[in-house]
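for the recovery benchmark. C-alpha cells below, seq after
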C-alpha cells in the first residue's frame, strides 16, 4: 500500500500481549492518519474515564510520514484528557514518528496497565514489554539516554508517573505532547517509555509528482516572510511573537488582569539570540527548524512558555524563564498549564511567585511535593479549592495560552469552540488577525469569524491528520498538500475533500464531548474578559469583549456546524452514519 502501511499495533499491558492488525482501507482514506485516525479509533471507548486502564493511548502517524513531503515527520497522540475530560490530541514532531512508520506502523494503540513499570520496545518484526523499574522516577533526559541506543524514545517524567493532570509525553527529549495531560494517561498505564526503531521504506505511488509537489511547497515556504523572512520563525523561532504581541497590546499579564508587559523585550526572540547564540533545531528533515537550542542541546522556550513564565507572572528574568522551561521539559510538564496555574495561585494569594522561586515551584508540581501538591491540580481545580473559581483563566479546564482574547475576537471564539479546551492551535486565528495570513481580518470584529473559525478548524484537523505541521500553512495551502497526498497514495485528493475530512473529524470530537456531558455551558470564556478591559495605549483601545456579540457569533458557529442551540447533536445516531 502506497503512503500507508495499513497496520496498527495493539498492545494490552494488562495481558502482556501485542498484536499487529490490518486497518480497513476505508478508514485510512477517510480519516488519513494522525489525529483523524486516532479519533476514529476511539469510537468504542470514548466514554471511559481518562485513567481507566481500558482507555486507549494512541500514537498515529500520517500517510506523508516517511516520504520527502515537507514538515510531515509528525504524529498525533490521542486519548481523553485527565485535565479536562475532553477528547484530546497533541501533534508532535521530532524523530519518533519517522521511526514508528519505519517499524511498519500507521498507529500504535496501548491499553491496560502493567503490573510494574514497563518500557514498550518496538521493531518491525518484534515487540517486547520490558521491565523499567530502574527508570521509574528518573527524569526524561536520563530515560532517553538509557534507551536511545535501542531507537527513538517517547517518555514520561516524574510528572506523568505522579499523575499530574497536565503531564506531557516527550519525544527524544525534545518535542512534546504537552496539552491536556496525556503523560498522566501513560503514567496510569505504568508505561515509562516507548522505544521504536525500524528500517522499512515508505513507498509513493508517483515519485515524480511527489517531487514536483515538494518543490512547490518549498518555493512557497521560501517566499513567506513569516517562515523565512528576516524576523521569521526559522530565524528566531516562535519567541519572535513576543514583541509583536506586545505591540498589539495582547500579552496576557498578571493572570490576564492586563494585556501589556513593559519588560517583555527581556525574553523576546532577539534577547534569546543575544543571550544564548542558539542553534537551529526541529523536527526530522524539516526545512523550517523553528525550535532553538543552546550549544549544549538544551531546548530554549517557545513563545507560549516564554510569555507565560514571563508576563503572566510579572517576570522579566530570562535565565529564570529558561530554567522553568527546562524543568518542564526534564520532568514532563505542560509549560502553559504550569505557568497559568502559578498565575492563578499568585492572584488568589495576592502575591505572584518571584523569578527565583518559579523553577523550584515547577519541580514541586511534578513531584507533588509541598505546595506542589495543590499546584499539581491545575488552575481550575486549584482555584475552586481556594474558593476563587473565577480566577482560573481556562476554557473546559484547559489553561489559555499567550494570546489575550480581548485583542483578537476570532481567538476569543476559537478558544471556546476548540474541542480540547482553551487551545490556540485548532483554528489559530492569530494567522489572519495578527500575522495577516492568508488575508488580514479585523481583530476587533466578530463579523464573519464563525465561518472563518469553522474553515480553519477543518483545515487544521486535516493537516493534523496528514500529519503535517500547521506552520506550513504560513506559506503553502491544502492545495499543495492535497497534491502531495495524491502523489504519495495514488488516490485523488482535492483541498475540498481534505476540508470535508477535517469537518468529519471535528464533528466526531464534538460528538464525543457532548456524549460525555459537554455543551454550550462549557463553550465560554472566564468572566474577566467580558467585565474588565485590557491595557489600552499607543493608540490601541482594548475594551472588554461584547457578551452579546460573542453569543451571536457562537450561535452562528453552531448553525454552520449543524448543531443545536446547545452546541450538540439532535441526531443520536450521528456517528453511525460516518465511515
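predicted aa per position
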Amino acid at each position: 500500500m502506497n503512503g500507508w502501511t495499513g497496520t496498527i499495533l495493539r498492545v494490552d499491558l494488562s495481558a502482556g500481549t501485542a498484536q499487529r492488525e490490518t486497518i480497513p482501507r476505508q478508514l485510512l482514506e477517510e480519516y488519513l492518519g494522525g489525529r483523524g485516525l486516532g479519533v476514529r479509533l476511539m469510537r468504542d471507548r470514548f466514554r471511559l474515564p481518562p485513567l481507566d486502564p481500558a482507555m486507549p493511548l494512541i500514537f498515529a502517524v500520517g500517510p506523508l510520514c516517511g516520504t520527502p513531503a515537507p514538515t510531515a515527520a509528525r504524529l498525533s497522540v490521542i486519548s481523553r484528557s485527565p485535565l479536562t475530560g475532553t477528547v484530546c490530541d497533541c501533534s508532535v514532531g521530532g524523530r519518533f514518528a519517522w521511526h514508528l512508520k519505519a517499524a511498519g506502523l500507521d498507529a500504535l494503540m496501548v491499553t491496560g496497565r502493567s503490573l510494574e513499570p514497563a518500557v514498550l520496545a518496538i521493531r518491525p518484526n518484534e515487540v517486547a514489554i520490558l521491565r523499567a523499574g530502574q527508570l521509574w522516577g528518573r527524569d526524561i533526559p536520563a530515560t532517553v539516554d538509557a534507551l536511545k541506543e535501542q531507537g527513538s524514545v517517547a517518555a514520561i517524567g516524574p510528572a506523568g508517573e505522579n499523575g499530574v493532570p497536565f503531564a506531557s509525553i516527550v519525544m527524544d527529549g525534545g518535542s512534546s505532547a504537552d496539552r491536556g495531560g496525556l503523560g498522566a494517561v501513560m503514567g496510569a498505564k505504568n508505561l515509562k517509555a516507548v522505544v521504536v526503531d525500524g528500517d522499512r521504506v515508505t513507498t509513493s505511488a508517483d515519485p515524480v509528482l511527489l517531487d514536483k509537489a515538494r518543490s512547490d511547497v518549498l518555493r512557497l515556504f521560501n517566499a513567506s516572510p513569516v517562515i523565512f523572512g528576516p524576523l521569521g520563525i526559522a530565524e528566531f523561532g516562535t519567541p519572535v511573537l513576543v514583541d509583536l504581541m506586545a505591540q498589539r497590546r495582547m500579552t496576557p499579564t498578571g493572570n490576564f488582569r492586563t494585556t501589556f508587559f513593559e519588560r517583555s523585550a527581556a525574553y523576546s526572540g532577539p534577547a534569546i539570540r543575544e543571550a544564548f547564540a542558539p542553534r537551529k533545531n526541529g523536527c526530522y528533515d524539516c526545512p523550517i527548524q523553528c525550535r532553538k537550542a543552546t550549544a549544549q542541546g538544551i531546548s530554549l522556550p517557545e513563545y507560549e512558555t516564554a510569555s507565560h513564565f514571563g508576563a503572566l507572572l510579572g517576570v522579566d528574568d530570562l535565565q529564570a524563564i529558561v530554567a522553568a522551561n527546562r524543568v518542564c521539559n526534564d520532568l514532563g510538564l505542560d509549560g502553559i498549564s504550569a505557568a497559568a496555574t502559578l498565575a492563578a495561585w499568585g492572584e488568589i494569594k495576592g502575591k505572584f511567585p518571584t523569578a527565583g522561586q518559579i523553577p523550584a515551584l515547577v519541580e514541586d508540581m511534578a513531584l507533588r511535593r509541598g505546595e506542589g501538591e495543590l499546584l499539581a491540580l491545575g488552575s481550575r481545580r486549584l482555584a475552586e479549592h481556594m474558593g476563587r473559581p473565577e480566577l482560573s483563566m481556562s476554557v473546559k479546564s484547559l489553561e489559555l495560552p499567550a494570546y489575550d482574547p480581548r485583542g483578537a475576537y476570532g481567538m476569543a471564539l476559537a478558544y471556546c469552540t476548540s474541542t480540547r479546551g482553551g487551545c490556540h492551535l485548532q483554528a489559530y486565528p492569530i494567522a489572519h488577525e495578527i500575522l495577516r495570513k492568508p488575508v488580514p481580518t479585523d481583530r476587533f470584529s466578530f463579523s464573519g469569524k464563525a465561518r472563518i473559525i469553522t474553515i480553519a478548524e477543518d483545515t487544521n484537523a486535516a493537516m493534523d491528520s496528514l500529519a503535517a505541521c500547521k506552520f506550513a500553512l504560513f506559506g503553502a495551502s491544502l492545495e499543495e498538500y492535497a497534491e502531495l497526498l495524491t502523489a504519495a497514495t495514488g488516490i485523488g485528493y482535492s483541498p475540498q475533500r481534505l476540508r470535508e475530512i477535517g469537518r468529519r473529524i471535528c464533528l466526531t470530537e464534538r460528538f464525543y464531548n457532548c456524549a460525555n456531558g459537554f455543551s454550550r455551558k462549557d463553550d465560554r470564556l472566564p468572566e474577566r474578559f467580558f467585565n474588565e478591559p485590557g491595557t489600552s495605549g499607543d493608540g490601541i483601545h482594548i475594551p472588554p469583549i461584547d457578551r452579546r456579540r460573542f453569543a451571536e457569533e457562537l450561535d452562528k458557529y453552531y448553525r454552520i456546524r449543524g448543531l443545536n442551540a446547545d452546541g450538540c447533536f439532535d441526531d443520536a445516531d450521528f456517528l453511525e452514519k460516518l465511515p
